[in-house]
Specification:
By secondary structure, the chain is an alpha+beta fold. 23% of the residues lie in helices and 27% in strands. The protein contains 7 helices and 13 strands. The chain has a 6-stranded mixed beta sheet. Strands 1-2-3-4-5 form a 5-stranded mixed beta sheet, covered by helices on one side. Strands 10-11 form a two-stranded antiparallel sheet.
Length: 214
């Protein structure tokens, strides 16, 4: 079985986990959520000999999508995701970045939107796509069933959940997404999230204080 690897490049003042997913043999892969600091992203992938085939976006907030257009232009690859419900958020990245103390981010228009039930792949690595709104209306998550690995963006964190006080956020919808889309992936699934350290779904289901009663 081809071996899936993941590396994290912290970017932007939000310390967002820009993630590189790649095959350790072919060194081909994709980048998830290039929120900014594109020069650092490009330097990192070039130093490690990674050939990026696409940009995947979990959701449209500026710290996750703000660098996608610049990276697309530098590499000549498509931007895929999130769900189309996040396009209004991506249309406001430039207008909102100064309010958050950020700079150098651009509005983002993907080449392809994603829907619940879609699949994405690079090489032999296939990912199932699930629409998981709540943190944002168009948030999606990526699941590699073969290696029990998920990228959950800002839906679920180690010891916390995504904030829902931003435009389009809905706390009950977020909890529903965790219950209906994340938990069924399996307790033994390890995940990377949008900020901070990753975890396993079962560990969060049992101990995360925000998930009591789900």
């Amino acid at each position: 079985m081809a071996k899936l690897q993941a590396g994290i490049i912290p970017v932007t003042p939000f310390e967002q986990n820009c993630t590189v997913l790649f095959d350790e043999e072919t060194m081909k892969g994709v980048i998830v959520d290039p929120g900014g600091d594109v020069d650092i992203i490009l330097q990192t992938i070039r130093e490690n000999g990674i050939q990026l085939e696409a940009i995947w976006i979990t959701h449209g907030h500026l710290d996750h999508a703000g660098g996608a257009m610049e990276l697309k232009e530098a590499l000549g690859v498509d931007i895929i995701g999130p769900h189309k419900a996040d396009q209004p958020i991506m249309d406001q990245i430039e207008a909102r970045m100064s309010a958050f103390g950020a700079s150098g981010m651009r509005n983002c228009t993907p080449d392809r939107y994603l829907d619940d039930g879609d699949t994405l792949s690079f090489g032999e690595h296939e990912f199932e796509v699930y629409h998981a709104p709540g943190h944002s209306p168009g948030h999606v998550i990526f699941f590699n069933r073969a290696q029990n690995f998920a990228h959950l963006g800002d839906v679920l964190f180690n010891g916390s959940v995504g904030r829902t006080d931003l435009p389009g956020g809905n706390h009950q919808q977020l909890l529903d997404s965790i219950r209906d889309k994340v938990f069924p992936l399996g307790d033994d699934v390890g995940f990377i999230c949008g900020h901070g350290p990753g975890s396993r779904i079962g560990d969060e289901r049992r101990s995360n204080p925000f998930l009591k009663g789900l």
